Amino acid sequence: MTTGKKVKSVTKISQQKIKVYDIEVADAHHYILGDGTVSHNSYVPTKKMGGGSGLEYAASTIVFLSKKKDKDKTDNSITGAIITANLKKARLTIENKKVETLLDYSTGLDAYYGLLDLAEKFGIFKKVSTRYDLPDGTKAFGTAIINDPEKYFTKDILDRIDESCKQEFLYGKSNVTSVEEEA
Q1: Which terminus has fewer CB within 10 Å in the chain: N or C?
Q2: 67 with 82: CB under 8 angstroms?
Q3: In this structure, are residues 28 and 76 in contact, taking their beta carbons and an 8 Å threshold?
Q4: Cβ 135 vs Cβ 154: under 8 Å
């Protein structure tokens, strides 16, 4: 029996018990380029999850992770990894969305990574030349915001980013109140 057939068999057997007991199951697999057949040298190779089709059909969410190196700008040493999560299958959110996060090898996950870009994208911070206009009327450089994120990303700003992200990533955008209506 091949691995794909084994995984599909186990998935079929365990699926009923998973539903009855209402538990979450996480499974880690690799992904391959192409469709997994001998003729996978197509013009535009696609990424496909390994392990057969059983998990692909049973899963509620499939996320492909990739990473790139994060280097220190001064001495070009590797300080961490920027992890990209690409949502391939989802039943609760919009598919094919990508989100990046920073994993610093000395401090762990950076909770504020990417928030400056989101705040600018959603119009919460407005970029004017090399500075950002903040909602309270002050101005700050991007490096100052990145170096001291707790000062600039207050609870109000984080709530506004959260509401904007709901509109960006969730189904039923008309049910979510927009940031412009609240402001």
Answers
A1: N
A2: yes
A3: no
A4: no
Region 120-129 average pLDDT: 94
Q: Which of the following CATH numbers is that of domain 111-183: 3.30.250, 1.10.3470, 2.60.40, 3.40.630?
A: 3.30.250
In the predicted model, what is the mean pLDDT of residues 130-155? Answer: 94
Q: Phi and psi for 81 in degrees, rounded to 5?
A: -140, 140
Distance CA 38, CA 51 (A): 16
How far apart are the C-alpha atoms of 50 and 38, rounded to whole Å?
14
Closest CA to 136 of 146, 126, 150: 126
User: What amino acid occupies position 146?
Assistant: I
pLDDT value at 142 more than 60: yes
- Please, is 5 exposed, middle or buried when counting C-beta atoms within 10 Å of its C-beta (0-12, 13-18, 19+)? exposed
Q: Residue 129: left if φ>0, alpha if ψ -120 to 50, beta else—which one? A: left
Domain limits of the chain?
1-59, 61-110, 111-183
DSSP SS3 for 155:
helix
